[in-house]
């Protein structure tokens, strides 16, 4: 009996300490928690940190909507190490804070170094389009498709499919009609998918059929609030490109993503 009572006595201080810790955690000012997040991220991104340390810290804080955290991740878009830039782009791609999209759009508009790197440029366009915001249209429809970087062109075409307004359909048709058929041909699968996602209509990979349809229907085209279900493999590829299933599962519905294989970062 005595050993049993001694065991209880030894456990009591620990239980009391645990309760006190929980009470103290509840009393903490939310601003202190936020400041702690921002401070730890800032320290990890400071000069002298390795690429691995920076990337790990960005991933830990990727979905946090605190303005200071988002600002720090946005600053990492200009890091000298490509791997850190990729991590920052991917973090802001799924971060739901409006300031995250703002940072991506500003980088797409002003960061010449990112635009000169084909992989980073395509990743940045996709990250912008992941948000599906109409504010991004100007970055997608004003210039002709890039011959130098097919992945950038592909990101722009599929990205328009993520912005569910009629102007996206008009933008896709404008891009389609501004390039020679030889340049257009490799992208027709992507045009088909993006237009199908927006309109629920399928004219295959025949650009002439699409243009004929558009000329006859441009005034009456409507874009539903939700996309239609695509044919089997097409749906799978669409979900994979945008990482839609993993985004639904992350943190009970917060946007997120499963790891994907990246090229070696410089």
Structure report:
It contains 16 helices and no strands. It is mainly alpha-helical and 266 residues long. It folds into two domains: 96 residues, Leucine-rich Repeat Variant (Alpha Horseshoe); 110 residues, no CATH class. Helix 4 runs antiparallel to helix 5 and helix 11 packs antiparallel against helix 13.
How are the secondary structure elements laid out?
Blueprint: H1 2-27, H2 30-44, H3 51-61, H4 67-75, H5 82-94, H6 98-110, H7 112-116, H8 118-130, H9 138-141, H10 150-160, H11 166-177, H12 181-184, H13 188-199, H14 207-217, H15 232-242, H16 244-249
Helix pairs in contact: 2-3, 2-4, 3-5, 4-5, 4-6, 5-8, 6-8, 8-10, 10-13, 11-13
Average pLDDT reading = 85
Q: Radius of gyration, rounded?
A: 24 Å
Structural class: mainly alpha
The total domain count is 2
Helicity, in percent? 55-70%
Low-confidence stretches: 2-15, 253-266
Distance separating the two termini: 67 Å
* Shape verdict: elongated
What percentage of the residues does DSSP assign to strands (E)?
A: under 5%
N to C succession of SSEs: HHHHHHHHHHHHHHHH
Q: Major beta sheet, specifics?
A: none
Q: If helices are DSSP runs of H or I spanning 4 or more residues, what is the number of helices?
A: 16
């Amino acid at each position: 009996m005595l050993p049993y009572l001694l065991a209880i006595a030894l456990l009591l201080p620990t239980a009391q300490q645990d309760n006190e810790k929980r009470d103290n955690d509840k009393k903490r000012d939310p601003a202190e928690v936020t400041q702690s997040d921002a401070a730890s991220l800032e320290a990890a991104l400071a000069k002298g940190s390795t690429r691995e340390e920076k990337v790990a810290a960005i991933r830990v804080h990727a979905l946090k909507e605190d303005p200071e955290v988002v600002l720090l991740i946005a600053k990492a878009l200009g890091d000298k190490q490509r791997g850190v830039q990729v991590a920052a782009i991917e973090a802001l791609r799924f971060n739901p804070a409006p300031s995250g999209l703002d940072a991506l759009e500003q980088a797409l508009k002003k960061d010449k170094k990112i635009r000169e790197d084909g992989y980073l440029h395509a990743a940045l366009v996709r990250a912008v389009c992941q948000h599906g915001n109409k504010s991004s249209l100007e970055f997608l429809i004003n210039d002709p498709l890039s011959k130098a970087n097919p992945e950038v062109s592909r990101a722009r075409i599929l990205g328009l499919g993520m912005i569910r307004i009629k102007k996206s359909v008009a933008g896709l048709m404008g891009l389609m009609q501004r390039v020679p058929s030889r340049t257009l041909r490799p992208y027709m699968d992507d045009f088909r998918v993006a237009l199908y996602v927006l309109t629920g209509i399928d004219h295959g990979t025949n650009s002439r059929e699409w243009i004929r349809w558009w000329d006859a229907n441009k005034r009456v085209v409507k874009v539903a609030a939700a996309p239609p279900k695509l044919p089997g493999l097409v749906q799978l590829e669409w979900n994979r490109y945008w990482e839609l299933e993993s985004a639904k599962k992350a943190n009970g519905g917060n946007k997120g993503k499963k790891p994907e294989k990246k090229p070696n970062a410089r």
